[in-house]
Design goal:
The chain is 13% helix and 58% strand. By secondary structure, the chain is mostly beta strands. The protein has an eight-stranded antiparallel β-barrel. The relative contact order is 0.19. The mean pLDDT is 80.
Length: 189
């Protein structure tokens, strides 16, 4: 016959297994406001950052418009177009950066109203100068990003994301690389 302490420990272990299984099921279950399959549009305000832009500063604030399609609540694609504001130098020359993006988006719902996501794709970047040796330089590079989205309801969400757009020029030395931090709204239909 088993000792009562062993029986108690075995039952405690079984209860803990059930609790862990329940917790894992709750984490991986699709929440009520999770992004449902279907299309969506997005509008973001972006803060642009660029390297190797001396004597210029960072690009100004910009906007991005985009849209996507979720095949499942966890996997989709997104196409975006974004443009920075102008940045100027002491010499009166200005530049701006544009990016056209295509990315696969993986979404993980944390709870019924909050999702985290990651992006991986390509970004066709372009730098336009008002004067100088390179009045329009461009480069297509790998795009990756991470972010979070607060779902107000099943159709409207607010998202915050960081994206590394890769190189925006292809001059060989001191290439300009760009990244953005954006805050915007998503509307699913």
């Amino acid at each position: 016959m088993k000792d009562t302490k062993i029986i108690f420990l075995e039952r405690e272990i079984e209860v803990k297994k059930v609790l862990v299984a329940s917790l894992l099921s709750a984490l991986f279950a699709a929440p009520a406001f999770a992004a449902a399959p279907g299309g969506y549009v997005a509008l973001d305000a972006q803060s642009w950052s660029a390297t190797n832009t001396a004597p210029f500063g960072n690009p100004g604030m910009g906007l991005r418009i985009g849209g996507g399609y979720r095949f499942t609540p966890n996997v989709g694609v997104e196409v975006d177009y974004g443009q920075s504001g102008n940045s100027s130098s002491v010499f009166g020359t200005t530049y701006k950066v544009t990016a056209t993006q295509l990315a696969v988006v993986g979404t993980y719902p944390i709870n019924s109203q909050f999702d985290v996501f990651a992006k991986l794709g390509m970004s066709a970047n372009s730098v336009s100068l008002s004067a100088g040796t390179c009045t329009s330089c461009s480069k297509t590079d790998v795009l990756f990003g991470i972010g979070g989205q607060y779902n107000i309801n099943q159709q409207v969400g607010i998202r915050l994301q960081y994206e590394s757009l890769g190189k925006a020029t292809n001059t060989g030395t001191n290439d300009i690389t760009a990244s953005t931090l954006s805050l915007g709204a998503v509307y699913a239909f």
